[in-house]
Design brief:
It is built from five helices and no strands. By secondary structure, it is mostly helical. Helix 1 runs antiparallel to helix 4, helix 2 packs antiparallel against helix 3 and helix 3 runs parallel beside helix 5.
């Protein structure tokens, strides 16, 4: 069992999309009667384990966002808190959908009998997606900060705080995701 191995996990937004949109060679192939080489078996297990671990983190964040969003929204006594709670609910739903889609994509790929270089290529593709997302996450934080500071109404300020909160998580998540997928 590798140090990244956990049960039932996937990846992030663009990583999930990358997994689904990888070239046709990445599509799940039926297992052949010919056994995989040890190198291919290890590369497959490594990719699947890392992807599932990252998806588990995203799904855990999603659950936290959904529960806290429901509480903040439900107990809100002002527009700021209501808007912040709405943002947490929206982002929690999006994150859950991404994690579930990546679980499905990784599960389908895990059934393939691809060679080790194909598995390493998939891992590098997902790593690149995490790196690009990391750069884009600064836009979430910046836009959220601007709305929070200059939004004008409590609704807009709450929305900004929610976007900034999600962006801050994504900064860390995508940085860690890129590191986890590094060779």
């Amino acid at each position: 069992m590798s140090r990244w191995q956990t049960q039932g996990r996937g990846s992030g937004l663009w990583a999930a999309l990358a997994l689904v949109a990888l070239p046709s060679q990445a599509a799940a192939q039926p297992l052949s009667s010919q056994p995989l080489s040890e190198e291919a078996t290890l590369a497959r297990a490594d990719f699947v384990d890392r992807s599932r671990m990252l998806g588990g983190v995203l799904l855990g964040w999603s659950a936290t966002s959904l529960v806290s969003g429901a509480l903040v929204y439900g107990l809100a006594e002002d527009d700021f808190a209501r808007s912040l709670g709405q943002q947490q609910l929206v982002w929690g739903t999006i994150d859950a959908a991404i994690a579930i889609a990546s679980f499905a994509a990784v599960g389908a790929m895990a059934a393939s009998n691809d060679d080790a270089p194909t598995w390493r290529s998939r891992r590098e593709t997902v790593r690149t997606v995490f790196q690009v997302n990391f750069a884009l996450d600064f836009a979430y934080v910046g836009a959220g900060a601007l709305l929070w500071r200059f939004g004008g109404t409590d609704d807009w300020r709450g929305l900004g705080a929610g976007v900034m909160h999600q962006g801050a998580f994504l900064l860390g998540y995508d940085l860690v995701g890129a590191a986890v997928m590094a060779p």
